[in-house]
What we know:
Strands 2-1-6-5-4-3 form a six-stranded mixed beta sheet. The radius of gyration is 15 Å and the shape is globular. It starts with 11 loop residues before the first helix and ends in a 15-residue tail after the last strand. The chain has one domain: Nuclear Transport Factor 2, Chain: A, CATH 3.10.450. It has three helices and six strands. It has 143 residues and is an alpha+beta fold. The chain has helices at 12-25, 28-34, 54-66, and strands spanning 42-44, 50-52, 70-81, 85-96, 106-115, 118-128. Helix content is 24%, strand content 36%.
Amino acid sequence: MEVRRKNFFASPQEAESAFYDARNRGDIEGMMAVWADEEDIVCILAGGPRASGYDAVREVWRRAFAGAHADVRIGNAVVIQGALQAIHSVHETLSVAGERAPRAPLAVTNVFMRGPLGWHMVLHHASVMPAAQDGGDAPKTLH
Length: 143
């Protein structure tokens, strides 16, 4: 039986920082230590299918880390936080080893829940942003 190591994160910002650190290092154990130890977690990478459940999410990241290394930077954060849930909307910029220019920016939603072991991710959803919404002076629209 697999042992699921969980780190304690005192804030959703701390959990998000650990998420991107693990992602940039290609560290599957560090990545999964950020995720909630639940079966109702969801991960959707840009252009990919929805992975639901701990094992499916782990497999998505295992495959992502097996590919070309990408350095990920985030910016333009919009944070909505309550006592038990936090929603972070960020823009990701990926630079992939061997590619001359960064890839198109991604619009990302990260959702964190607070439980007995601190804050952990329950949703990561990334999609390619239209060119007009690349984080410049485009107006912010809430749906």
